[in-house]
Structures are given as C-alpha cells and as structure tokens.
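Annotated sample (chain length 660).
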Amino acid sequence: MDLLSSKWILNLILCSLFIGVGGNSVEKKIYVHLNYTVPCVRLLNATHQIGCQSSLSGNVGVLHVLESEDNLDWVLKSGPNPPYLVILESPLFTRSIMMKLKNGSRRVAGVVVVAPNANPLEAFSPHTTCPNENSGVYSEDYDPALAHCNVTVWNPFGNGLAYEEFDFPIFSLKDDNDTHVIRQCYMEHNRAVNGSTPQYPLCAMQLYSHMSAVTNTATCMRRNDIDFSISPEMVCDPLGDYNVWASTRPINNTAKGHKMWESVVIAAARLDSRSFFFDIAPGADSGVSGFVTLLAAAHALRNATQEAPPNRTILYAFFQGETFDYIGSSRMVYDMQNNQFAVDLDNVHSVLEIGQVGLHTESKLWLHSDPVSRKNSSVLFQVRKLIENLQSAAGGLNISMDEPSVSQPLPPSSFQRFLRARPIPGVVLEDHQSAFSNRFYESMYDNAEYLNISYPPNMTPEEQLEFVTDTAKALTEVATMVAKALYMQAGGSEPQLSSIKADAQIVTRLLYGFLVRSNNSWFQQLIPSDLMSHLGKLGYKNKTFVPPQMYYYMWVQGAAPPNSTQREGFCIRSTVRLSKALSPAFDMREYTSKDYSTWTESRWKSIKGRIFLVASHDLEMLTLGVGIAVLLTSLLLTYVISSKADMLFSSGREPTNATY
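Output written by the structure step:
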C-alpha cells in the first residue's frame, strides 16, 4: 500500500470519528428524552388481549394538551396537523374521553397522562365493576343467582379501562421537570391563539412501547415454542410469582399431601395489586392493609403459640396474582388436591381471610361468609364459631363488627377458590358491607395518602419510620383482634388471650416500608445482603431457598451497633416457605382453560419517550428532494471524475525507460 492510499484511509477514519461525535451531539440537540416514563403494557388471556402498544418504530404525533372534554374536537376532527399525541391532566383521564380517543385512533398517535402529586377528589378505578367474576365460586353450577355480581356490584366506581385494548401507546409521567418542558414546548409552538392555526415548526413527541405478543395466550405461547434460531425469542410470559406461607408449628414440607392428625386453620391475605400503568400499583387498601394486618397478627401470636400451642396449627398464607383470576390461591388449592403441598384439603379446618381493612368511613368491620355452603349444617356450625371468636376477640378494642345480609354472596376473595373445591367453613373480613368503600380500587391512587398515612413536617426518614400514625394504630387494633380470634379458632387456651397484642411499632414500620420508603434501615436489617438492590423497588419479591427440612434458615444483615458501620448479621430459623404461584393451566398446557387463570404479559424491547420540533410536511419533502438531488449529483460527478482519473490525476512523471 502506497503512502497516498494510507493518507486517504487515515483521513476517512478521522472523518468518520468526527461525524460520529457530531451526530451524537446533533441528536442531543434535536431530542429531549423523557425520564420516569411508565407505560400501559399488553396482557393476554384465553380469549383476547388488553392494554396498549406503539408501532415497531414508535408512534409520533404533534403535541396537544387537552384542556377539557369539549376540546376533543380539535384532536378528532378539526386540528390541521394529525396525528396528535394528547397530554391529559389526571381529571381528564376518564372512560368517556379515552373511549372517544380510541374510536378516533387514526388521528391519535398516543396519550400521556400527567400523574398528580396529590390524589383526586373524584373516585377512580380502572378495574371492572365485578372483579374476577368468571373465576370465583359463583357460577352456573354454584347458585347462578349469585353469579356475575347479580346481587351486589362490588366495585361501583370501576370503569373497566384497564381491560380495554388501545392500538396506541399510553404513558404516565410524573408532574415534574419533564411535564414542565412538555407544557412549555406546547405553549411556545403548538397552542392556537385566537383561533389561528399554529405555524411550523411544531412540538412533537415519540413514544416507544412495541409489544411482541398478539391475539391471545394460546397464540403467544405457541410462538414461544417455535425454535428457528440458536437463541429463540420469547414473546410473552405467564403471570406468576410465589405464594408465601408459614405455620405456627413446623410441617414436614418434604412429604407432600395428607398429614395424619393434622388440622390447620388458614389465615390468608393477598399480596398483589395492579393499576392501569405497569409497575405503579401501591395497593394500599386493596392489598397492603390486609397483609400488614396479618403479618402483625402473626407477630402477636409468636409467644402464645410457643408457650401454649393450640390444638390446631395456624397456617398463614399470602397469595400472589389474585387480581388476575386468583392465580396464587387457585394454585395452592390445586396443589392440595394433587398431593403437591405440605397438607391437603382434608387437613383444612377453616379459613379466615383478611381483605380490605383500611377502615375509611368508620371503625366497623364486616364478616362475610358464603350463603351456599352455610346450608351444610357442619359448615354453618364452624362459621358461627369463627364469627363468635371474632366478636369475642373484638371486646375491649375500638372496633365494631357486623354481618351483612344472610343472602349476600362473598366479595371477591381468595377463599372462593377453596369453596370451588369443597364446602369449607370460612369468613372474609372487610371494611365494607356490600360495595367496596375503596374509591380507588386497583388504581395508582390507592396509596399511602389514601390510607391517611402522613407525618409531621420536617421529619427525617428515620423519624418517619418510627412515628406511629393513626392508620397504624387502627390496623394494630384489627391485628390484635385477628390474632386472638385465630388463637381461639385453633383451640388455644383462654388464659393466653390477655398476652396477645399486636405491636403498633411493627405495623407503622411495615406501612412505611411498603407504601412510603422501602429502602429503609429496618428493612435492611431483615434481608440478606444479596437482596439489597431490591429495596429500591416497592413491593419487591423476596428470594428464598427452601431446603427439604422442617425449618427454613436464612442469614440476615442485622443492625449496626452504635458508632459502627459494620452490621452484626445473624441466622434466622423459621417455618416460612415459598410455593409456586403459577396457574395450573400452564403446567397442563391448557391455554384456553375456563377453570384457571390464563393471563400472560407481552414482552417488549424498549420503553421510552422523547420530544422534538418537527418541520412542515412541505419542508420535509423539499429537504428530501434536495438531498436526493445532491446524492444524484454526487454520484454523477464521482462517475465522471473516476472515468477521467488518469487524465485529471496524472503525476507528470517521466517514463521509466527515459535515459540521460
């Protein structure tokens, strides 16, 4: 290679490097990338798909801030620059507006909902009015008069938005710097003044949330099985996780199935929640109030069950995936029926489930039971016994209780899945008589604010962790009542009842950790060091290792002594276990099952959003035309110069045979 060629190669390399750097700099000048974007994603079941998605390359639209429902005409009809990407303040995120945007989706590129810093005054629930109506116990085979919420509409505020399908992306943004930039860009470039048409350049947004799965669960699971490459890509995943369970006496978890002479009282609560947007599901009343109450009750029973063990074992069960057709509870019942769990249904004496107990309207709890199974005299006797134990346990506490009408069915609850297997005595504890008192059921507003969890100003995080809120005091009373009732239901001795009392400090720490700040000093003490990274996410999923023994052992970090940063870890021995919370439909490969949950979640590659200024269509076409003309001219010149290269670049050197 001669020196001239080397020089040109070096020049080309340097040019490419500078072009790369320049391109990156230009990209940053053109686009403003959005932080904290939370999308609506696609879910699928046996029959259809719900949720949202963008095109493969992302959806682009001119920004339009919707000021009122009357302003929709600009987006759907009269606006001259469709498609539009609509910015909604939270009061306008209603079913009426969203369905109009869905029906006019040819002019709608996407929607961004600005999440408020405070909860709205109006009720909002994107769930249906009859949660899990096709997967509970009431059906054509089990008192059809009670099926499909014919007697009680449990969630009257439900608008069903979370179960609609939208063919454009819908994102949620925090009301912070990003939304300020968006509003400013809209005001400067897009807002029509005095009826005039906005002039180019216009402010536009691009949203990426392309979903891989389509149609239904059977289709996406079949595509998962297609293996045409070395590294096949999955398009969807079954919804699932782990149930958490523990017992007051160790149960041999190695030998599955029926345990002779074993009788268990199941104390249950759900762990999961959801909202319209992925990963924003605080579930303060719908989930946290119940499982925090049960955790506090289990803590209150620790000493009593060790010092004077009751005749029956109390089995604490925390179910995952209950929002999606009772995934966790249906799996536990399935395992019990098929000798895949530590006990079977014959070992189950009764069930007490803790539901929504946030006590919003009044300090009154309602004891719900099933009117159909109560027709069995033995079931009725045990139900009455459990109710009497609950009422007795409430004595001396600031709690009143009552029973709804004898003909009223059970509210949506995990206990329904046990009743689908066989008549079992049980009670579901709720803070509502009929319809939910929770105005924000399964929404992003079912949060700490809604449970009235607040702290005096200027408190540090450590001070907030230890501050006992009024909500914590109320739930402590409920937990004390639940603990005493469980002890009596298990056949415990009456002298021990006076020593059973829930700890308000434990309750307030749990509420703070699950609803306010998960990465706190108390939670850090209770987990292994390899799980520290999970504390940045509320509602993280614990990871445990279950040996085939009577107990489970785990090393935790512990607290740091005063004037030291080194934690003093220690080993915990407990009866806590994990069991699979995956719908049996996926084990049996019955993706169209009507008996079990078939919900899956689509996979995706990129979730992001950005804003930029867009030129008019005419200018874009002119720019494209000029670019093509320059390209063709360059090709023509290159051809001409190449064909005349010998003449144009002759060195004028003497021939090699020249003599002197």
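Annotation: DSSP finds 17 helices and 22 strands in the chain.
Annotation: The chain has a mean pLDDT of 89.
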